[in-house]
From TrEMBL:
Single Gene Ontology BP annotation: transmembrane transport
SUPFAM superfamilies registered for this protein in UniProt: Mechanosensitive channel protein MscS (YggB), C-terminal domain, Mechanosensitive channel protein MscS (YggB), transmembrane region, Sm-like ribonucleoproteins
Keyword Cell membrane attached: yes
Primary location recorded for the protein, binned into one broad class: membrane
Stretches assigned to the Mechanosensitive ion channel MscS domain: 175-240
Family per record: Belongs to the MscS (TC 1.A.23) family.
Bilayer-spanning residue ranges: 12-36, 48-70, 90-109, 129-149
Protein name according to UniProt: Mechanosensitive ion channel
Domain Mechanosensitive ion channel MscS C-terminal span(s) in chain numbering: 249-339
GO cellular component: plasma membrane
Lipid bilayer topology: Multi-pass membrane protein
Alphabetically ordered keywords of this record: Cell membrane, Membrane, Transmembrane, Transmembrane helix
Localization of this protein: Cell membrane
Length: 358
């Protein structure tokens, strides 16, 4: 009995129990991870299992250690009180560690587990980004809530904190909360998605990333513009990819007066069919290419050619019209159709000037 009392006073049994518990947690955890890896054949799934399993084991180990260190004076020392809950160093450490684990789990799931699912069900780039963002913040909230509840945190005390935040919003955080809520609305109603081509103040941009507070867009000059999310709810903008990514391309051609307009129209249409027969398969056969006489200008008859492509990428939007113009130039030359260019005819009405000219 005296020996046991001595061990108890030296806290030997306390630390022995803690060490044995850690060994048991990691032993069982690694056993199940190895068991799952043997059951699956995919290297990607095994990578996910190893990463997620390791971080879950770290989280469980951390919570287990905190359950033993909870009796320590410095870990349980009160820093501040929120409602009925005492904020202690242990609580702060748990929140920080929960955030780290949540970020690691989120990155692993989004980068390793979800891409094959997206590919299998052919989910577009925009919905992928929305799902990833919502999943990321959901994992963070759930992980923090689980960690705090396991420590006996009283969530009703957050009503006091919410009141303080409400006052802060009224004074200085209005714009931040406005952008935050706007980000949630954008993610759910999908007025814009990652990959969309958006025209903002006459600037063509591509949506590169939608954050919870702001959106990153890329211009044609490869510049990044940071735009608050509230902008997309309060201002007009053009989303050229809202329903589909099809784009109508316009090419204007001027031919001389006196040329056969039917022949010129036929050559323009055939030029697009020639382009479609080449390596550029992004041209759409429906709607069909169309040619209209747009105007009788001062020096030429203006014709306008319309055709459709299925992609708004810069290669399609700029390269295809360029290739089409090359084919048009060649076909016009072979068919004898002349392009118009500015010129002036001078008529001498005075015979005196005519004689001098002779």
């Amino acid at each position: 009995m005296e020996f046991l009392n001595t061990l108890e006073q030296s806290r030997f049994l306390f630390w022995l129990t803690a060490i044995l518990g850690m060994v048991l947690i990691w032993g069982l955890g690694l056993f199940f991870i190895r068991l799952i890896n043997k059951a699956v054949r995919s290297d990607r799934v095994q990578t996910v299992v190893n990463k997620v399993g390791t971080w879950i084991l770290l989280f469980i180990s951390m919570m287990y250690i905190f359950s033993f260190l909870g009796e320590s004076n410095w870990m349980s020392r009160e820093i501040v009180t929120i409602g009925d809950t005492e904020v202690t160093p242990m609580l702060i450490i748990v929140i920080i560690f929960a955030l780290v684990v949540a970020f690691k789990l989120s990155n692993t799931i989004r980068h390793y587990l979800l891409p094959p699912v997206y590919d299998r069900y052919e989910i577009d780039r925009g919905p992928r980004a929305t799902i990833n963002t919502l999943l990321h913040y959901t994992i963070i909230i759930v992980m923090i809530a689980f960690s705090l509840s396991s420590l006996g945190f009283n969530f009703s005390s957050l009503t006091v904190f919410a009141g303080v935040v409400g006052v802060g919003v009224g004074f200085g955080l209005k714009n931040i909360m406005n952008n935050f809520i706007s980000g949630l609305i954008i993610l759910f109603d999908r007025t814009i998605e990652v990959g969309d081509r958006v025209v903002i103040d006459d600037t063509f941009t591509d949506i590169e990333e939608i954050k919870i507070r702001y959106t990153i867009v890329r211009t044609r000059l490869n510049e990044r513009i940071i735009i608050p999310n509230s902008y997309f709810l309060e201002n007009k903008f053009i989303n050229r990819s809202f329903t589909n990514k099809r784009l109508r391309v316009t090419i204007e051609v001027g031919v001389e007066y006196g040329e056969d307009l039917d022949l010129a129209e036929e050559e323009l249409i055939e030029s697009i069919y020639d382009l479609q027969a080449t390596k550029y398969g992004r041209l759409l056969s429906n709607p069909l290419p169309e040619v209209y006489v747009e105007n009788f200008d001062e020096y030429n008859v203006s014709l306008v050619l319309f055709f459709w492509i299925d992609d708004q990428a810069e290669q399609a939007e700029f390269v295809l019209p360029s290739e089409a113009r090359k084919i048009i130039y060649k076909r016009f030359y072979e068919a004898g159709v002349s392009f118009a260019f500015p010129r002036q005819d001078l008529y001498l009405l005075n015979k005196q000037f005519e004689n001098q000219a002779k």
